[in-house]
């Protein structure tokens, strides 16, 4: 069975979240040998119904106010906040984790499909004047999930929501971001126009296939990276930094792999040179760099049919790599990806849960990391009008 691992970063809910009660001011803080104790005094006033952030002293300096709590089930839920989280049907488990991080319940929404395949959406609670966040990756079936997102946006707009943010952990059609041949469409721009025209005020996306996709939207786009979650996990493994080499499975991913290698103890970089003869078909030609006796970490933004990364792994083994790890944010896993990934080429395949992984798509080498805390923190900062530039998730220093 695949293992589910939660990233240690941003793992604890924040007391400034709507689900926490901070009705009294923390003052006169002093540090005890093992903990921080505060004296509770006068009530804390708030004009907008949302408790402001409460700084704490940690190691003699102010921190962001992150407290450890036993479990998210113990978090009280508030109903007076103007923040609303709704989930589509594409990845409800991730949406629930995000809501739990924020100390909220998912908003009540009715989504059904008629006999002819048409989608019906009705909000089951008022969102008038609220900041609404709709969590819906446009993963397979891409067209149905995209249409569902558009109808959810329209329902919120017609219900007089103040702001509507489309939270798209995986942005489908992102690979169709340019014309490589004559008479081709640029579907990424078309989808961006559809989301904008439906009524979205903002988009929150994770690991877009190419950065220029942000320019296709005529509304603000907050782009966060899921790969630092993978970096946290790799840092917890007992791999000697001198044995590591980061490998880009194609020339187009060199900037991503170089930034990843820089964060991973400034590991050396290798590049797999391939020639693509058709969509979802790849042929490996050559390897640039030395991997002999090394632990090779292959990095990509998504794994679709796994043809590119599997052929790259074969070449790495031929060139003398000791072990090969595959790391990717988005696990599309179109057939025959599972057969290729579970064939013994990889020591471990590390992905995130931006796309739900069905039971029939799991295999022993698969490890799934959660990006719920990353997205939850970003949602809160957008709602609270704070910068989303929270290291290390806002940038990979890709240039």
From TrEMBL:
Pfam families cross-referenced by the UniProt entry: Pribosyl_synth, Pribosyltran_N
Gene Ontology BP terms: 5-phosphoribose 1-diphosphate biosynthetic process; purine nucleotide biosynthetic process; ribonucleoside monophosphate biosynthetic process
Annotated Ribose-phosphate pyrophosphokinase N-terminal domain residues: 84-199
InterPro entries hit by this protein: PRib_PP_synth_CS, Pribosyltran_N, PRTase-like, PRTase_dom, Rib-P_diPkinase, Rib-P_diPkinase_bac
Catalytic reaction annotation: D-ribose 5-phosphate + ATP = 5-phospho-alpha-D-ribose 1-diphosphate + AMP + H(+)
Domain of life: Eukaryota
NCBIfam families xref list: PRK01259.1, PRK02812.1, ribP_PPkin
Family to which the UniProt record says this protein belongs: Belongs to the ribose-phosphate pyrophosphokinase family.
The protein's name in its UniProt record: ribose-phosphate diphosphokinase
Native source organism of the sequence: Rhynchospora breviuscula
């Amino acid at each position: 069975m695949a293992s589910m691992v939660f990233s240690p970063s941003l793992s604890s809910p924040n007391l400034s979240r709507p689900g926490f009660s901070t009705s009294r001011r923390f003052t006169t803080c002093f540090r005890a040998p093992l903990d921080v104790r505060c004296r509770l005094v006068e009530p804390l006033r708030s004009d907008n119904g949302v408790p402001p952030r409460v700084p704490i002293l940690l190691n003699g300096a102010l921190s962001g106010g992150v407290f450890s709590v036993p479990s998210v089930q113990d978090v009280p839920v508030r109903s007076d906040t103007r923040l609303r989280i709704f989930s589509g049907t594409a990845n409800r488990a991730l949406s629930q984790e995000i809501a739990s991080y924020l100390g909220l319940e998912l908003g009540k929404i009715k989504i059904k499909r008629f006999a002819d395949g048409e989608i019906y959406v009705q909000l089951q609670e008022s969102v008038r004047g609220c900041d609404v966040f709709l969590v819906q990756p446009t993963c397979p079936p891409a067209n149905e999930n995209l249409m569902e997102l558009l109808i959810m946006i329209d329902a919120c707009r017609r219900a007089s929501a103040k702001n509507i943010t489309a939270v798209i952990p995986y942005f489908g059609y992102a690979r169709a971001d340019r014309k490589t041949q004559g008479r081709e469409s640029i579907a990424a721009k078309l989808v961006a126009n559809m989301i904008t025209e439906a009524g979205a005020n903002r988009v929150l996306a994770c690991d877009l296939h190419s950065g220029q996709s942000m320019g296709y939207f005529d509304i603000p786009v907050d782009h966060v990276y899921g790969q630092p979650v993978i970096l946290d996990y790799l840092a917890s493994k007992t791999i000697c930094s001198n044995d590591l080499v980061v490998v880009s499975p194609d020339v187009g991913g060199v900037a991503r792999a170089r930034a990843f290698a820089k964060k991973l103890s400034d590991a050396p970089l290798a590049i797999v040179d391939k020639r693509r003869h058709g969509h979802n078909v790849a042929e490996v030609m050559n390897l640039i760099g030395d991997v002999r006796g090394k632990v090779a970490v292959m990095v990509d933004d998504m794994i679709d049919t796994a043809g590119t990364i599997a052929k790259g792994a074969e070449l790495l083994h031929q060139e003398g790599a000791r072990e090969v790890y595959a790391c990717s944010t988005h696990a599309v896993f179109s057939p025959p990806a599972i057969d290729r990934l579970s064939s013994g080429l990889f020591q471990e395949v590390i992905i995130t849960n931006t796309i739900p992984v069905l039971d029939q798509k799991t295999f022993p080498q698969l490890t799934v990391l959660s990006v719920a805390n990353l997205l939850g923190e970003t949602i809160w900062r957008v709602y609270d009008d704070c910068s989303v530039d929270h290291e290390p998730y806002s940038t990979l220093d890709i240039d």
